[in-house]
Amino acid sequence: MLNLARVSLSGAVTAVVLALPQIAMAHDPHADLRIVTSFTINSMNPWQDGYWMQEFGQAELLMKFNEDGNHHPWLLSSLENPEPNRWVLTLRDELHFQNGRPVDAAAVLAAIDAAIDHSPAAQGSVPDGAEFTVTGALELTVTTPAPWPELPGVLADEQVFLILDADAVAAVGEDWAQLVGAGIYTGPYSVTGLDDTRLKAEAFADYWQGTPALPGLTVAFVPDPNARILAVQNNEADIALYPPLAARPAVDAMPDVHFNLGGLSTGGFTGYMNLEQGPLADVSVRKAVLRAVDYREIAQDVFRGGLAQAHSLYAENLPFALQNYQTDLLDAAALLDAAGWVTGPDGIRHKDGRKLSVILAIYPQQPDLVPLSTAVQAQLARVGIDAEIVSFDGINQALLEPSNRWDLAMVSTGAASWGRVQNFLNTYLLPGARRNYGGYDNAEVNALVPELATEVDPERRTEILHRIQSILWDEDPYAFSFNIHLGRVIVNDQYACYAPGFALYHVSWQTAPCD
After folding, report:
1. Which residues of 402-413 are buried (b: 16+ CB within 10 A; e: fewer)?
2. Helices (H), 368-421
3. pLDDT (tens digit, 9 = 90+) per residue, 174-224?
4. What is the pTM of this model?
């Protein structure tokens, strides 16, 4: 046990004790990479916890979603769509699992079939009637009753089809601990240990892209954000994931510690309006809220550039993103005037004896929602809307509970995670969807979303996504982005050049200390 209480961060930490590996202060630059993260990897169960493995370099996928907004072959050498209802997947030559077994088409089909049998995420991602067939030693063919344009995104989604040795997984039953050291994945680092405190992995010498740059890595599970920062400061970790933006000034003042920002993410803090109760049932009030929010101020003043400004529902580097967000206090006020909301002597509007007051719903697991909600509270007051902030533990369940009163929820959401737009639209916008928190039901959106699911023409797909974004801003607001997230990590001097991984790819075979 190491006492990491060397300094206090904004008075929040006076003593922190962690169960991190004992490591000398003068860390060998050629030693294992040491990461601290807020989440715990509970087991080697590939169907429940396997998605962590691609984030830290153990597992790989057939396709990869890159910062350019496109999908690229990863374990595949090519992905072709010769007919609307048929895809052809061709694997790279001479791939092997870490246990030495070959990765051919039959092995990949076994991994896909096992995922469909055991993984709810896989089951929910494959359309009815889809068939995966081996059509060559390194080739699979996918046929579907209707076109499946989102297949590249499905193959890049860490929660769907990890490529693993399905026979080795089946052999252990559900004794998942036996998979430690079993080399079931294809990535540059193979798992050698997993317990309640950390994951350990060592380099896979025969990795297909080349010799991994590190001998191995350790991922320690440290829920307390201040403890993660102190671990880097005290040279007991190289990289701390998920630092709160509120810690950035304190970190910037520390010697030999760096708060690194990355590129645009595929999501951000998303606002969801409650259409079933309260003042946001009035479409004019919803439009006024959108125009009263100052998106530039949130990104640049509140979070000092630690978040990117939202210009639409989607990050601006995605090819289908509009730039239709515009703060306009005069327009917001005019909308409220026309709807009969009259400003009182206290600056707050009233109508028919009712005060224009909304409840902003946040949750404690995202500490950055505190400054965000406080800023939005002040912004809404500028047009005469009073706002109260309420924190719910377990936000998804709380928003769906009818007895809970809320009007505008703030939830971290990926509107295009791994380049997949369909999942967000299906889950959050359609009537009866499992996270349609506010009861949204727009007839045109209800028709456009299923059309998009089978539309293969790129121009028509973009038209559909543009139209949905326009409806959500101009006609029938419901879900909108307060910001777009940027990747962020805290690193020591040895990893000062480390850029936060895009789409949760934290470790590649080339990840290494700076020169």
Report:
1. eeeebbbbbbbb
2. 369-381, 395-400
3. 999 999 999 999 999 999 999 999 999 999 999 999 999 999 999 999 988
4. 0.85
